[in-house]
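README: folding subset

This subset contains proteins for which both the sequence and a predicted structure token string are available. Records are stored as plain text. Below is the entry for mannan endo-1,6-alpha-mannosidase (833 residues), shown exactly as it appears on disk.
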Amino acid sequence: MSFYSGHHLGGTPGLLPKPYYWWEAGALMGSLIDYWYYTGDTRWNDVAQEGLLFQVGPNNDYMPPNQTMTEGNDDQGFWGMAVMSAAENNFPDPPHGKPGWLALAQAVFNTQAARWEKQDCGGGLRWQIFPWNNGYNYKNSISQACFFNIAARLARYTGNQSYAAWAERTWDWMVATHLLDLKTYYIYDGMHVENCSNITPYQWTYNAGAFLMGAAAMYNISDAHAATWRERIDGLLNGSLIFFTGDDKNIMTEVACEPVNLCDLDQQSFKAYLARWMAATTKWAPWTYDRVKPLLAASAVAATSTCTGGDNGRMCGLKWNTRKWDGTTGVGQQMAAMEAVLANTIRHSRSPVTDWDGGTSVGDPGAGGADVGRKNRVFPTVSAAEKAGAHTLLDLYSSRFASCGTTHYTIALGRWLLMTNEAENIKTILGTNMDDWPIDGPRLLSTLPVLGPDSIFTSNGEAWHRARAMLKPSFVRDQVADLQCFDRHIKNLLAAVPAADGVTFDIQALLFDMAMDSSTDFLLGHSTSLLTQASPEAQQFVRDFEYAGRESAKKARLGPLLYHLPHRKLRDAVRGLREYVRFYLKRAIAEKEEAGGSNKARDRRRNYVFLDELLKQSPPEDYTVDQILSVLIAGRDTTATAMAAVFYFLARDPAAVEKLREEISGVGVENPTWEQLKHMKYLNNVIKEALRLFSPVATNSRTSNKETILPRGGGKDGSQPILIPKGTPVRWSSHELHRNKDVFGPDPDEFRPERWDSDLRVRPLSWEYIPFSGGPRICLGQQFALTQIAYTLFRFFKTFRAIEARGSGPFLLRTNLTISFPYGCLSTFRNLA
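--- output ---
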């Protein structure tokens, strides 16, 4: 459970951290039920119940909207089989008002039965539920296995023969298509609907296990056909022997991938399910025990012999035949070893119940009816609450500027607020008269809980000058131009992009992970490694970081009075993320002392670490933590969202992608230098244009500390100076400022990188374009961020030939400390030919 964080502060119940997919979290919930069933230990029951109920989706059928870009019938099926186990084993029932375990399994069955189709390959379920997902044209055995397994078990639990009829139909279809070979009882992977006779011949343990347990359930209820199902069970057991290797042919092995070291993250867990279902089969088909038990016993001994790895010396490996840890760790390896061990106690465990012999779970035969057969993606409507924090807030500013003028007063939280999108006013506030306009109000309150009063983002006057003087030397050209550190993380990002051509995924999520990995590496000398294998401490740090950012922004919107209400979870999250930074700060100090006051110890590992540079000035510990977190907030979120914006617009402009690829190809190198990136005209135009339309910090504000004057906003037409009383908050929207037709031409809402060519620009720009703010407080990391974005684009389009948008929903932006795409940036990449 060290891999699972859904029950921790900021975690999402029922989700495993990346890179694990949603289905495996459902499988994990099933393992927790097994753990309780075999041991009687209740320590994880609340976690399992919370996860199973949190992921049900709006129609209680395990089709949550946030999973529609990856959810297949097999994914949904694993959640359905988990709740079926909960019903059969009398796992503690959900609280009043929540659907019963049986009802949830029935909902999964009902939605899947409605997807059975005859027009392609004569029946069966497609792998993917939704047409836009890669694999929609594939019918695979595991989708049928899950459906068969649930149908057979529902038939046994409820006595309803309609479920049994569906199980029979599924079995018959598997045989008719030769996915299940009755000569060998091998079960093959699947086939594409374009050629249903061309079988993909791979065999996987979980296919054999799911059909075996389903067949045992059918045997248990079939008086007239018991002999037939007994024969099938024996045949499946014979066929499953292919998965047992070693000198005595009794150690479970994922034969399609283990011997060639090609088991992916999903496949590393498959043995868990064969062990689970082989053991369960013995309860409904008792004669199988004598055949199954020796295989499970030998596999358990072999599995536990590999559980000597990791920092705690208890992590299990994938290859049980080696009798030693193979260097791999993961949720799948741990589940598989646990299930193999637990399965050996099956004889002493109680038999699964039914509706008439002790079952307590409440069912609903019509469950899922509101969602049956759904294959379209429903983009969530923007509620009134979402409008307060999404793109519509920026639209509200835009409409008010259009109706009230470029500088006008409005009321926010009972207080007068001046809104302006005049470049001259912004120049005065940020540049000319900066000292009259300190950071205050919501801008200050949104970061103060996390950063404290002395950070570069929360201080003013002399305190701000001191913080900036401390940080500025760390962003000199030599550091910005050193791409060695960042190159490691872009390689991890490229490896995390789905290898199959055309797979839909959320590039924004990967970019956020990469930006956190590279930012912590640059700042602390130690990466969170979210793209590879993050430690539990790093995962918790990221959860605390994101939670603190969200909640601080929410508190700021409440206004100064409600802002001071206690918020224990926010306080705990801030404490956690500060302690994480403090740990590496203390370690850097210790290393410096060991090296006799120099940074030689660390320099052997890295050319440059931001923290080392700060320590040369011997600042106070808390002050250093403030500044590190300041740079992390700026460097991670703004850079990640800026990158996501570039990919968002390129995914909708293939001509721009082709032009960009031509320029990249012309450079003639795989790893460009900083100087080469700076001289790539079109690449930099693409970045400028994306930041114009999508400025990570879309709005900003200051508050006057004395009576002062702004140059625009007075007089009948707003062209005269305007007097500003002391204590007046002023807010501007770069989102609106960057769409000024007088500056950017008649198409300011269009993505057109060519507008940045000197011959197309309406006039030279100054304060009309401020994606990184301006004046003395302009972002210190501007060049660092631009370099990372440019390098990412260069490397991506050296690897991929095209990017295509997925999803046709409206262009929505969520405003927080920065803006982002609330539903991700769904894309697919095309590999080079």
